[in-house]
Design goal:
With about 120 residues, the protein is α+β, with helices and mostly antiparallel strands. The chain is built from three helices and eight strands; from the N terminus they run E-H-E-E-E-H-E-E-E-H-E. The protein is about 20% helix and about 40% strand. The longest helix is centred in the first third of the chain and has 12 residues.
């Protein structure tokens, strides 16, 4: 038995000006930029209401796209469950696994990182 849920929507931006991209998405989605903005970071997390899905604007070197992050209390079990559904592992990192859906969308599986996991996660056997 393990648990998982949608954790983040990550907007991958192939850009040298991450702040400009974050300003656009902040205005488009109505989520403010963080007060303690780190201009040197690879990502900027917009301020979403507590417990809601997080929105992250991330600088990448591949083409721009969006991907989902699934958070789980057992990366191993969640990856195995998703493989049974037809997903494949693209790469394994220290703290997450990059996977690809049968329809070619990439997504990540990692540990819980936002509040309310115990109340909002699905339970899988």
């Amino acid at each position: 038995i393990h648990r998982s849920r949608l954790g983040d929507i990550v907007i991958d931006c192939h850009t040298d000006d991450l702040l400009a991209a974050a300003r656009f998405w902040s205005a488009a989605l109505g989520y403010p930029l963080p007060q303690d903005l780190d201009r040197t970071s690879r990502f900027i997390q917009l301020v979403t209401p507590p417990g809601e899905v997080q929105v992250i604007i991330q600088r990448v070197h591949h083409e721009s796209r969006a991907h989902l992050d699934i958070e789980t209390d057992s990366i191993y079990s969640e990856v195995a469950r998703l493989e049974r559904l037809g997903a494949t592992v693209v790469s394994r990192k220290d703290e997450w696994v990059v996977m690809q859906a049968p329809t070619a969308q990439r997504f990540c599986v990692g540990s819980p990182y936002r509040g309310g996991f115990d109340q909002g996660a699905n339970t899988w056997e």
